[in-house]
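Record type: ASSEMBLY
Status: queued
Input:
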Amino acid sequence: MSVDTTTSPTPSDRAGSTHPGSGAQPPAPPGRKPAPPVGEGRIGLRANLRHIEALVRRNVLQIKQDPESMFDVLLMPIVFTLLFVYVFGGAISGKGNQDDYVNYVIPGLLAMMGMNIAMAVGTGVNDDVKKGVMDRFRSMPIARSSVLIAKIVVEIGRMSVAMTILLGMGFALGLEVKTSLVEVLAAIGLSMLFGASLMWIFILLGLTLKTPQAVQGLAMLVLTPLQFGSSIFAPPTTMPGWLETFTDYNPLSNLADAARALINGGELANSVWMTLGWAAAITLVTAPLAVAKFRKRT
Amino acid sequence: MGPHIVDNMQQNHRSDTARISDRTHAVEVRGLVKHYGETKALDGVDLTVREGTVLGVLGPNGAGKTTLVRCLATLILPDAGSATVAGYDVVHQPRQLRRTIGLTGQYASVDEKLSGWENLYMIGRLLDLSRAAARRRAAEMLERFSLTDAAKKPVMQYSGGMRRRLDLAASLVGEPSVLYLDEPTTGLDPRTRNEVWDEVQRMVTEGVTVLLTTQYMEEAERLADELTVIDQGRVIAEGRVDELKAKVGGRTLRIRPSDRSQLDAMARELARAGLDGIAGVHTAVDEGLLTVPILTDEQLTAVVGVLASHHFGIADITTHLPSLDDVFLAVTGERRPVSEQSAESATTLQETAA
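Status: finished
Output:
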């Protein structure tokens, strides 16, 4: 049997070709799709968007199937608002001053919400890796980053729900916007942006650690001191000097201060720039690490 | 077998070129190595799968089967060696390669929270089908795998067999030319196993090339055209199923005398008769059996003749082909004590195949 070495069949040729020496081999089934027009197999932008859309749809369907996964989004803003305004608000701002505290803590909770919702992305990624779904995606002709981008898109959607509920709670408890709608939206946007930058850290944890529980445990361990050692719940000026210094450098303080200034008015340039700087820095460092980890073929 | 071997030789001369334009080998693996620290998951594996055939990769747990599949599915990079699938290199052309393969197994899974239909639709969309085409394809695959009734149910509620059928359907949405089945029936009950086997056979008749890893001899025997036996990351035997069996020996004759006490006497007479080519008559006293390895039909007749001429009563007589278990034990058993022996045994088996 001779083999023609001069022709280099295209994949579509190949798929339909039959063994020249074996008449018994059945012909290729009808309807084999022609190979997609890919030069070197690069995935075009439109295809990429289509893939992200399909993956976002998957994540949304997951939520529909498992509504409990929305508990954090639905309940956290309500529980935290009630807890801090009524339980701690009096102690922090003085009895009867809860109304003032609403305007202090709601922007702070806005900052916290982004972070806490972002955490879920880590356990989601970890679950996909463990269940083998990720390997299915990784063996398919799609950009590997599209799987991660879809997760982030969905988490941002979840964040926006949580933040809407939070602001609703705030208004019900007497939150006063002293600026305008534009600034409120800017506060939401800034919190989401910061939360999105943190997602890369959680994705990295999700890809690195063995179980979703480990991801959640480690995330809580890091997040809890960051949350409480910040200006989210109480003014740092009331804290001991060393802690005040810590909160000054805590990016969550910057974000909380920025959100506060955007809703209550006041000097905001510094805190906004600091927050943007942190978000950019975190993304620039952790996103490439996470994507590299995800793409690595080991 | 003839043309295959010629191809093989030609192939060896050209295996350095990036795109091997050989239409007859869907999968070509040369000296593939993957080490995890001290563990040599793959320690220089060579194998080929002819287009439109099923290659069974047989080996115990930890032999390197899954690592091999993961390399060929571009999920992991080999440390050394080369592999091409449908002419595409696993290291340098992963994107093109992914368009030609389907993967089903222990690791590549569907989303449990989604329904069967949603899983297939999503995969269709990820494979660049239009919405309408993806919808059509999902319905088609559900129909084909008898999952239409469960189309809207979340996969979590599927039985093991339904789940495995959906896995197969998922890997076929893209009409791959090469399909990897990594232990496709592990953990399934016998009936479901048969269903999966039927489906695999159907795919093969449609022209799909299959690389199947399994621990089950029965599965390999039922599905595979050729076999590669691997152990500790190395190929220790390869060839067609019947060739491997022939290597282990011909048939075994099991004779049950009417009177168990005559077992030894029968063995003695057979040994004394000195039949041509018959050696190693064994008595299994516990089971009341006399076992005689034979190579030809004439030897069977001769054995019966000797026993008849001495007026031994025979209650039962059966012939047994060696099972793949026997093959496996024979090749891995040889290997275990001294590692050099394995190389020899693999060589001799390859020579036998040629």
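Annotation: Chain A has eleven helices and no strands.
Annotation: Residues 1-39 of chain A have pLDDT under 50 and may be disordered.
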